[in-house]
Amino acid sequence: MGNENNVNPNPTITFEAETFRRIQPEEYLRKFVQQHVRPDGCITTADGSSMVRIGNTTIVCGIKAEVSEPKLNFPKEGYLVPNIDLSPICSPRFKPGPPSEQAQILSENLNKLLKNPKVIDLETLCIQEGKAAWVLFADIVCVNYDGNIFDACVMALISALADVKLPKAVYEDGLVKATEEKIIALSFIRTPYSISFAMFDGKHLLADPNEMEESIIKSAITIAIDETGQLCNIWKVGTSCTPEQLRTCISKARDRYVDITSIIEKARQAT
Predict the structure, then answer these.
(1) Mind telling me which CDD domains this protein's record contains (predicted)?
(2) Residue 10: what pLDDT?
(3) How many CB atoms lie within 10 A of CB 52?
(4) DSSP string spanning the chain?
C-alpha cells in the first residue's frame, strides 16, 4: 500500500482516485465537502492541516489553536487535544452518534504516543506561566476507510503539526494580545510514526494491512518509532508472536520510517 500527504508517489493509487474523480465528480467532491475540507487537503479555517492516504484509507487532520489557562499541574505548558472521528461517511461499518469503541481506543493510543515521551515542546506553547497558553485541538477525520487507520492518523497528525503557524502572543493586564501574522512554527522534540503489520496463518507478515486483510487475520502488531530508530511504543492485538517475528517487524518498521519521511518531505516541497 502507498502513502500520500497531498501528493501521491504511488501511480496505482493516484489512478484509482483520479478515476473516481472523473467518473463520479459530484460524489468525489461530496466525500470531502461533507467533512468541511477541499479535495486538495486544505482546511482554510485551520492553523495547520494535512491529508494522508494509505492505500484507499484517507485521513484529513485540521488543527485549531485557542488560548486557555494552563493545567494546574503544568503551569508552564500548553497542551494538545487529539480526537479521531470515524463517521458513517467513511464507511457503513460506523454508525452515527457517540464515538465508537474503535475511535476511542485509537484516540487513547494516539494520546499515549504524543505524551510518552513528548512529541512537541509544550513549554513553547505557554504565553504566561499559570495564566495563558496555546491549546491545539486536532480533529482527525477519516474520509474513506480501508484499514490501517492508526498509521494514517499518526501520519496526518504529525504532518498537520508541522504545518501549524502561530501568531506571537503576549499577556498584558489579564488579556492575551496576538499579532495578525502567523509565523511561529511548533518545536518538535521527536517525530514518531507508526507502522502496522498483520500476521496471517501465524507466519506471514503483511505490512499496511487493508480492511479485508484486517477482517481475517488473528494477530496484528503496530510499531511506533522516531527519527533515531528508537522504539516509542508497541501495540499488539490477537494471538502471540515469536521473538523473531517481533524483531522482524521492528527492523522492517525502521526501514519503512525512512520511506515515510522521504514521501512526506517530497509532499511538503510540492505544496
Answers:
(1) RNase_PH_RRP43
(2) 35
(3) 28
(4) --EEESB---HHHHHHHHHHHHHSHHHHHHHHHTTT--TTS--TTSSEEEEEEETTEEEEEEEEEEEEPPPTT-TT--EEEEEEE--TTT-TTS-SSSPPHHHHHHHHHHHHHHHTTBSB-GGGGEEETTTEEEEEEEEEEEEE--S-HHHHHHHHHHHHHHH-EEEEEEEETTEEEEEEEEEEEP-BS---EEEEEEEETTTEEEES--HHHHHH-SEEEEEEE-TTS-EEEEEEEES---HHHHHHHHHHHHHHHHHHHHHHHHHHHH-
Residue 175 contacts by C-beta under 8 Å, 6 or more apart in sequence? Answer: none
Q: At the top level of CATH, which class does the domain 3-190 belong to?
A: alpha beta
Sign of CA dihedral 179, 184, 189, 191: positive
CA-based nearest residue to 185, from 203, 210, 160, 205: 160
Q: What is the pLDDT of residues 33-47, one digit of tens each?
A: 665 555 554 555 689
Tell me the pTM.
0.83
- Residue 18: is its pLDDT beyond 60? no
Name the residue ranges covered by the structural domains of the chain: 3-190
